[in-house]
Amino acid sequence: MLFLCLNSEDNLRGAGRGTIGDTQYEYIKKVLAANPSVKWTLLFMHQPLWIQEDTQRWQEVEALLANRKHTVFVGHIHRYIKFERNNGKYFTLATTGGGTRLRGPQLGEFDHVVWVTMTEEGPLLANLMLEGIWDENVSTQAMSEFARPLADGFPMMLDPILISEEDYQGSTAMVKITNDSDGLMEVALEFAAHPQFYTDVVRKSLSIQPNSVEMLPIKIQSFAPVRLSDAEPLVLKAQITYKKEAFPDIQLQKMYQIRPEPRRMLYPADKKIKVDGDLKDWGTLAYLSTEQAHLVANPFAHQGNQDASFRFDVRYDEEFLYFAIKVQDDEILTDANRWGDDQDGITLIVNARPEKQSANTTGGWNESLYLIQNPADKMVSQFFRPGRLPEGVGGVTRRTPEGYQSEFKIPIAYLQKIYGSPDWQSVRLNVRVSDWDQQFQHETQLYWQPDWGSPENYIGSGLFTKAENQPEKK
Predict the structure, then answer these.
(1) Do residues 323 and 409 both lie within one domain?
(2) Together in a domain, 335 and 458
(3) In terms of domains, do 368 and 444 share one?
(4) Residue-level pLDDT at 291
(5) Contacts from 96-105 at CB under 8 Å and sequence distance 24+?
(6) Closest by alpha carbon to 28, among 1, 71, 59, 64?
(7) What b/e string do you get for 390-424 counting C-beta neighbours within 10 Å, with b at 16 or more?
(8) How far, in Å, CA of 188 to CA of 205, rounded?
(9) Where are the alpha helices (DSSP H) in 312-354?
(10) Residue after which a domain boundary falls, among 137, 152, 167
(11) Domain contains 93
(12) In this structure, are 186 and 282 located in the same domain?
């Protein structure tokens, strides 16, 4: 047997952009040529290069393997999938305590240990899980191709509730349920009891035919007028079951939080904004973390507003969306060897999709723009992972006696591209300030709105509607 351990990161391009470079290819070619008669070749690496593009010499590596008995094991995507290709079996493994939503074997999301026994016919796999032992077919490529598109984007989309009044009394929210599969979809909805609101639908079951859409209006009323600042989210539990012949049922669950939100206006800049970290072009910044702060912190890590707090504002003109923030931080800790949000710094999260799509997003590097800047010096203009940012993005962070402050700019052309139209109308934002203290022993992540990927997230938090004119002076 030949064990071949490769480096899919040999050009350090990051997740989803793995490579086999020239030097490593020549090594692989040499080793395979020196071992032509082994019974089996086992290849191990981190990223599944066969599902990626621009992997440099990987396809040539596959050509070298094509006439050999071989098996490939990788990780990276945290989902188990068995591929039969190139005259071999290629496995992406799931997790053993790593990051996963644990939605089950049908989606390849489970914790396991793989026990491999070599036989004359090749490797025999046993997937050891707490729930039992599964063979190598626990999740195949065909199963993944059916299930993943359904699971990656949850098939329900809810209207955000955006109002201009200070008090909320009721409205109708539309629920759009899309069955993009070739099988039957069964839907079960249930609203939790709520002290402030009630709905005309408490429980609802639906059967949705393949490749069809169902629109369900939900009337929401308050028992008495509720001030927006006092409104608690209404919780909707959704269970989706996909049924298709020759496949096991796929069941997905999700909890939605629905909360009336003020319709925040994104106003045009009343003067030319110079992005230099000075903030003299801004006046009073409108949005404060102290009014609506969401903390993710170690016990006793956050010691109040003086420890960490912020206020920010946004504006736009024909060329850019502008963002300004002033951070109060009593101890600044940065380290060039740490991840961007693993040290003191600012993260601006931007989702520029149309309002309903943006309102339902749950974050993630693949669907939102993350701008991270750390106050590593008196003045900084470098973003974290700048190679992944759109062309034209800029920003400056300066230290201040109270902490630090920043100005960022994002090209309007980027917003138009993601929105899908030159006439973009909205953008969803969140702001995160990372605060570390006591030689990196105490961590606080301070959000303006709930983390979009957290259970506390609610539909439409942080949405801004583009205003064509300046606000009326009171």
Answers:
(1) yes
(2) yes
(3) yes
(4) 52
(5) 103/151, 103/252, 104/251, 105/80, 105/134, 105/138, 105/139, 105/248
(6) 64
(7) eeebbbbbbbeeebbbbbbbbbbebbeebbeeeeb
(8) 5
(9) none
(10) 152
(11) yes
(12) no
Same domain? For 352 and 462 the reply is: yes
Q: Which structural domain range is residue 242 located in?
A: 156-261
185 falls within a domain: yes
Give how many domains the chain has, as a whole number. 3
* Three-class SS state of 387: helix
Cα–Cα distance for residue pair 12/311, rounded to 1 Å: 36
- The three-point CA angle 391-394-395 to 5° equals 160
| 152-194 residue pLDDT tens | 777 899 999 999 888 999 999 999 999 988 889 999 999 999 9
471 located within any domain: no
Neighbour-count burial for 249-276, b at 16+ CB within 10 Å, e otherwise: ebebeeebbbbbbeebebbebeeebebe
Three-point CA angle 231, 302, 437, nearest 5°: 150
- Helix, strand or coil for residue 88? strand
**DSSP H or E stretch at residue 415:** helix 412-419
CATH of the domain at 201: 2.60.40.10
Q: Three-state SS string across 164-221, please?
A: CCCEEEEEEEEEEEEECCCCEEEEEEEECCCCCEEECCCEEEEEECCCEEEEEEEEEE
pTM over 0.90: no
**Contacts with 79 (C-beta within 8 Å, 6 or more apart), sequence order:** 92, 94, 100, 107, 108, 109, 139, 144, 148
Q: How many helices (H) and strands (E) does the chain have?
A: 5, 31
User: d(Cα 182, Cα 96) in Å, to the nearest integer?
Assistant: 33
CB 342 within 8 A of CB 434: yes
- Give the per-residue pLDDT at 153: 72
Using one digit for the tens of pLDDT, what is the confidence trace for 188-216? 999 999 999 999 999 999 999 999 999 99
Is 174 part of a structural domain of the chain? yes
> Angle CA(444)–CA(460)–CA(260) in degrees, nearest 5?
100
**45-72 per-position pLDDT tens digit:** 999 999 999 999 999 999 999 999 999 9
Within its chain, how far is the Cα of 386 from the centroid? 18
CB 274 within 8 A of CB 474: no
For tokens 């955000």, the residue is: 160
CATH number of the domain where residue 414 is located: 2.60.40.1190
- Same domain? For 245 and 285 the reply is no
Same domain, 207 and 293: no
